[in-house]
Amino acid sequence: MSHIVVLGAGTGGITAAFELRKYLKKKHQITVVHERDYFQFVPSNPWVAIGKRKRSQTTLSLARVLGKRGINVIVQPATRIDADGNALELRDGSRVAYDYLLITTGSELAFDAVPGAGPDKYTQSITLVEHAEQAKAAYERFLEAPGPVVVGALPGASCFGVVYEYAFILSNDLRKRKLRKKVPMTFVTPEPYIGHMGIDGLANSNGLLQSRLREHDMKWITNAKLTRIEPGRMFVSEMNRHGQLEEEHELPFAYSMLLPAFRGVKAVARTEGLCNANGFVRVDEHQRSLKWPNIFAAGVGIDIPALPTPVPVGMPKTGFMIETMVTAAVHNIQADLTGRKATARATWSTLCLADLGDTGALFVGLPQIPPRNTTWARMGWWARWGKIVFERYFLTKMRWGTSEPLFEKYMFKALGISRLEKK
């Protein structure tokens, strides 16, 4: 019998736990270690921040969801990985021994990289459900005295889709309240152009999103390097394509949501030889650590080099891309346990369904990182409803304790997307 420990229970971690239970024999023990006792569906956070969802609708009890499948749950932060000793060290001083470790921790939020940024300072965030709830409370106060709004991302940020989503959802909500005319809006992004999204765009994402910004009467600043934030105003250096200063901006705001850059979590990052300088796990094409063959990693916390841009941006790891990594890691752990060679490789494709307020968008990249076999972008009400349906489906699937990809089976097949690279 082997003990497989999954560190982290976000989208990647909870999917990994279900797939491990599905593919491994019952004699193998599976344990999930997470700092919180619940799973949160992060793609719903823009709706939570605007009051269209409640926390109870987008979170699940880990013990309840995983327990019914015979998966152990330890609710406690890990403080250190003893990679040579094959054990996790937890905050209470206890150790969890493992035969295989699958790291799906996600990342830490680097608000401190820009003075004044973050929910405990002067701007809001929707990265965590707690932040989204705080953003909703701040938004309700804002509605009593509307003023300028700035939505965007800090230098080094990587998950731009959610930033575009929130900007349009917010604008649409203000229109419904007949308050939009009182709220000048500015979109601020380190991307070199609108719709770049850290991956050099997808099909005509530039034209589609620029058009939507104009339709919603939003100004924008690209190649934006936010340098500091003070109460009611922020300072932005707009760079040119050579990374040289083009113009300085001082933007007033009554409400702002800014996505931070990510970095590796401390418990993982401090393991010498495991990560790069930013704390992201270095893995091979089979999601295996370059130094320890019984450690695998998937999701936001792995090292994928960013594309060069005048202002730094990160490489996004979207939900489907994360699932392909998890599937590859699980198949390779299974191969190891049965004495076979690890051969499974993730497709690293991207599929993004976005709610743009009064419509939606679907972006597809096969693979996510250029050059691509297929790149595709479409906009319409059906995409918005597609995201809503997928949210309900995903959470319902987790409540049932199943990882069967019923919805993905048909949708991804129609788009020609595979969870694993074909031999």
Give a verbal description of the structure.
The protein has helices spanning 11-23, 45-50, 55-58, 62-67, 129-144, 160-176, 205-215, 266-269, 319-337, 381-400, 406-415; strands at residues 3-7, 29-34, 38-40, 59-61, 72-75, 78-82, 87-90, 95-97, 100-103, 108-109, 149-153, 185-188, 218-221, 224-230, 233-239, 245-252, 255-259, 262-263, 295-297, 350-355, 360-366, 374-379. The protein is built from 11 helices and 22 strands. A 5-stranded parallel β-sheet has the order 5-2-1-9-19. The protein is globular and about 65 Å long. The mean pLDDT is 93. With 423 residues, it is an alpha/beta fold.
Helices and strands, with pairings:
Blueprint: E1 3-7, H1 11-23, E2 29-34, E3 38-40, H2 45-50, H3 55-58, E4 59-61, H4 62-67, E5 72-75, E6 78-82, E7 87-90, E8 95-97, E9 100-103, E10 108-109, H5 129-144, E11 149-153, H6 160-176, E12 185-188, H7 205-215, E13 218-221, E14 224-230, E15 233-239, E16 245-252, E17 255-259, E18 262-263, H8 266-269, E19 295-297, H9 319-337, E20 350-355, E21 360-366, E22 374-379, H10 381-400, H11 406-415
Parallel strand pairs: 1-2, 1-9, 2-5, 9-19, 11-12, 11-17, 12-13
Antiparallel strand pairs: 3-4, 6-7, 7-8, 10-18, 14-15, 15-16, 20-21, 21-22
